[in-house]
Amino acid sequence: MISASSRWLALPAVLYLSVLFLGPTGVVLAYSFCERDIYGGVEPRFSWEAWRMATDRITLSILGRTVLLAAGVTAANLLLAYPSAAALARLPRRQRSLWVLAISFPMITSLLLRTYGWMNVLPLSWRGTLPAVGLVLTFNYLPFMLLPLLKAYERADRTLVLAALDLGATPWQAFWRVTFPVTLWGAASGAALVFIPVSGEYLIPHFIGDGKVNVAGTLVLEWFQHRHWPYAAACAVWLAAVVLAPIFAALWWNARDLAPAAAGPLSRR
Amino acid sequence: MQHRFRQLAWHWLCGAALVLVLAGMYLPVAMIFVYSFNASRIGTVWTGFSLHGYTELWDQADLWRALRASCLIGCAASTLSVVGGTLAALGLRAWRPRTKLLAQGVLALPLVMPDVIIALSLAMFFSALSVQQGWGTVVAAHCVFGISYAFVVVLGAVEDLDRNLYAAALDCGASPWQAYGKVIVPILMPSLVVAWLFVFALSFDDFLITFLTKGPGADTLPIKIYSQMRFGIKPQTSALFVLLFLATLAGAVVASRIVRRREPAV
After folding, report:
1. Which residues of chain A lie closer than 8 angstroms to B110, CB-CB?
2. What is the full DSSP assignment across chain A?
3. Is 0.95 topped by the overall pTM?
4. pLDDT digits (tens, 9 = 90+) for B129-141
5. Which of A35, A76, A159, A245 could form a disulfide with A47 if both were Cys (CB 3.0 to 4.6 A apart)?
6. Which of B25, B35, B208 comes nearest A106 by C-beta?
7. ipTM rounded to 2 decimals
8. Which segment of A85-99, A143-157, B36-50 scores lowest on mean pLDDT?
């Protein structure tokens, strides 16, 4: 039995995030409807100005580019992670965990320095282009796709694939008709883990994009620094909607199928 | 025959993807190693081999100050986060299903928010309440994502706890404090350590949230590097990260040895 008095233990964390997460979210929403104060901050007067700016063609095209970039990076990650996970799944356990550790170990070095490394590796003519930003983002988020996918592979019954091959399926058919359906939840949770942070990414588009690639993250930060807080707030609300919409849509669409997928990265197994 | 050949080609393709992944992960790290041996004072161009990135590392007072700030903020944020997140995971078991689900949503929501939104909202929040920004606000901001991650990491271990353990400890005469301190916490310890290291690593490498909540004071390592990015990273900065990388690697190897030696006994 769990004693009823232990329920108070949860209170500090829940209250903390209610104040420091929900509170700030409310402030951003409120600020997006305020007038701009050119010294930073806002004038506490109601105004549609920020939202009029945030629904113009330029803002919408930047948001479109952000979604495109995030979707492209997610797709590239799937393309790289699926065969890698397949190759890893064939290895014995000890070797496999060593490989996983080796692949994700660079993540502990500073993101800024790794980005700097890429800046010096990429040909100069690639700097400031969207594909270059996508390339660097892809490798930066690869472990987030690979790990859930590998978990899905480990849980899948490998004999099924062998049976399919024995019965004359080509490797592609075996993958598409057997492996893919049973690892879909891993791919879905990996996609969420990649899509969400990539759509809000600031550092990589800023430095690899060389100021020429405008995405939601750079937009929000630049206008915050230009002291147009209501517009920055409105863009942040847009970005949150863009990120959360597919997740809630997916949950709504197929609550039972995707519940384990959404919980996949969160639960231990 | 063709069947066998197809399978071989498929295996080959998978192996090639794995090699490509590994190359992509280590290419930028290799560049940090290379640039730590650069002779140029500022790192934009390669001018020749030199060790002064390492020999002059001790003289870089601002670098060490930034490292200290990063470590202090990381320790404070991850300790607070792990305590808060663990208590939340333990306490939520006694909540009613409906409110529990709501609370879990609040606790996990920062995980599905891009950093830039958390950073902007906290900066506006602190400014709206005219809170003086500094070390305190940075730690408070890092706890926002820290509690979420710690909660999620510890939750699995808490759900696996035998529900009778606590009651058994009380039956055997332990006070509630002793029951937690001597029974529950030792069982949870491996996940607590993982959660702590995880949050520390996130806090240590965080740029955006720190950047918008730091005020004039708390310059962490990522802030320092950011200011060097445009004009070239100094070789000393690269050298520091090479040393940190190697130290973490050594730590990971030693830790895995210790864990492996203990495993058969359990």
Report:
1. 17, 21
2. ---GGGGGGGHHHHHHHIIIIIHHHHHHHHHTTEEE-TTSSEEEEE-SHHHHHHTSHHHHHHHHHHHHHHHHHHHHHHHHHHHHHHHHHTS-HHHHHHHHHHHHGGGGS-HHHHHHHHHHHS-GGGTT-HHHHHHHHHHHHHHHHHHHHHHHHHHS-HHHHHHHHHTT--HHHHIIIIIHHHHHHHHHHHHHHHHHHHHT--HHHHHHTTT----HHHHHHHHHHTT-HHHHHHHHHHHHHHHHHHHHHHHHHTHHHHHHHHHTTTS--
3. no
4. 888 888 999 999 9
5. A35
6. B25
7. 0.87
8. B36-50
